[in-house]
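User: Hi! I'm working on a homework problem where we have to compare a predicted structure to a textbook description. Could you give me the structure for the chain below?
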Amino acid sequence: MSKENRHFANFNPNFWGDIFLSSPAEMMLKLMYNTFTILKRFKQVRRMLGISTDKPYQNLDIIDAIQRLGVAYHFEKEIQDAFHIIYYHHCNNTQIDDDLYSTASVRFRLLREHGFDVCCEMFNKFIDEKGKFKESLISDVKGMLELYEAAHFQLHGETILEEALAFTVFHLMSAETTMDYSLSTQIANARKLPLRKSLPRVLASQRLIALLCPL
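Assistant: Happy to help. Predicted structure tokens:
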């Protein structure tokens, strides 16, 4: 009787790995470890939000990041406390660097988003003698992206934010094809669905993809 030659299929590795081969005890230990790690990270974030009231604008990036990741509800009190300090410094014109126009945009957007009364005239410092946004801003693509997002929080009659939106849309369209994958993806996502119109879950998934796949 002749032997039958059988070919073994060359299957790709299982996407799930050996997760379903683990015992319930092992899976529980992994879950407990991951939970402990997350809780430890949460404590670190709370500590970061609570320090250095002399440089409150440093908290803007932290608040923006945890909002985009969809975990801001864990830090509601800390965020509100941080915003009251940020707003105090904003109203008293302290700790403001005129060159950081991306930071100005983030500050404006987050304060308005959280119900604080912020005047759009803070963007006048980025206007040239001809009444247009300075051409030097074009090279700061991340800054333009932040200004684009801030402009969507405009109120009726705020001409400078209408001009900011037109300015950033035009130049971001040009920049989208020349930037690296991560930044061009952020631009494309923002143009399709700006932060003000984004659902938290969609925003969180986009942020995770950007963090996990930076190239």
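For your comparison, note the following. The chain has eight helices and no strands. The chain has two domains: 22-96, 98-215. Good luck with the assignment!
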